[in-house]
Design brief:
322 residues, alpha/beta
């Protein structure tokens, strides 16, 4: 696909202007998006005489690893990098701009930071492993934010937990940008970002942004709607196939465990358990019932009554002494 949601324009004096106006990574629906590989290739193709990079951003974020790679690509470039948020810098897009030495916000622009998220299918071990990975990714994002803000890691983490949306002034007050500038546009600057499918994953969208999203969201034609439905169906089929394979694998493992020859220790423990159950059963069987105990006591009383040395007053047996 020839469409590129970003442009790199060389200017006079070794300056390069980059417009990052779409989601980061490949768009699940259209195949479009700013991938780390293409971004790095285009930056390299711009030549070695670049002394200043001006990055202009209007993006809802996207793939966290593509974003971290773009951030590191800018950070390792020899040029001085400045960033300007024209509309929205959300999610991993807010991390990318941290590679700049100075960040400016249009006075009607916004920034959003939140925790990284993902989709996963698998067993509990795989899910625990992915949770650990997400914690490490969050730590990497916090490291980038601390290039500008003086907030502690815990304070930044709390803002990410809450999915924090910041106006231009709040972004500067919190230390995530250095200054507010007068924009050259209006709410239309945000329109491209809010149309991205990833935008639907956000939770605490401010009313102004939600209203722009509702006003600017284009209607899908029948072909694109059918394509999306088909993609969802394929995704569901893949999940069902994965679950079926997992169940089949687990069933085979259980079958192999059942058929496996027990070890000597296992046989010894099984024999001991069986003998213990047998001893318990015999003790229970030998224990007289209450009725049997009463009959035995009555019979013994009758025997004592017939014994010639029985003391009728005390009912105690008199034992003769030689």
């Amino acid at each position: 696909m020839n469409h590129k949601p970003w442009t790199m324009t060389a200017k006079a004096g070794g300056e390069l202007e980059i417009l990052l106006y779409e989601m980061i990574g490949q768009d699940f629906w259209t195949g479009e998006g700013t991938t780390a590989k293409s971004f790095a290739e285009d930056l390299k193709a711009a030549g070695g005489g670049i002394r200043k990079i001006h990055l202009r951003v209007n993006s809802p974020g996207g793939n966290v690893f593509d974003g971290l790679a773009i951030y590191n690509t800018l950070l390792s470039h020899g040029a001085t990098v400045t960033a300007q948020v024209d509309g929205l810098a959300a999610s991993i897009a807010s991390v990318i701009i941290m590679a700049a030495s100075e960040i400016s916000m249009g006075d009607n622009a916004m920034m959003m930071i939140h925790n990284p998220s993902t989709l996963i299918a698998g067993d509990s071990n795989e899910m625990r492993k992915m949770a650990d990975t997400m914690d490490k990714v969050k730590t990497s994002m916090i490291t980038a934010y601390r290039r500008h803000t003086r907030k502690s890691s815990d304070q930044i983490g709390a803002l990410m937990d809450a999915e924090t949306w910041m106006t231009a002034g709040e972004t500067v007050d919190n230390g995530f940008a250095e200054k507010v500038i007068t924009p050259k546009g209006d709410d239309a600057d945000v329109a491209a970002a809010v149309r991205a499918p990833i935008f639907a994953r956000f939770h605490n969208i401010p009313p102004r942004i939600a209203e722009i999203a509702a006003r600017c969201a284009p209607g899908d034609d029948d072909r694109r709607r059918r394509s999306r439905l088909r993609t969802l169906e394929l995704h569901d089929d893949q999940l069902a196939e994965h679950r079926a394979r997992t169940l089949e694998t687990h069933a085979l493992e259980l079958s192999n465990m059942a058929a496996r020859e027990p070890s000597e220790e296992q046989r010894r423990r099984a024999t001991m358990a069986q003998r213990g159950r047998e001893v318990h059963a015999m003790r229970e069987a030998a224990r007289p019932t209450e009725d049997e105990r009463r009959r035995i006591m009555a019979a013994r009383q009758k025997e004592l009554a017939r014994w010639p040395f029985a003391d009728p007053l005390s009912s105690r047996l008199l034992v003769p002494i030689d």
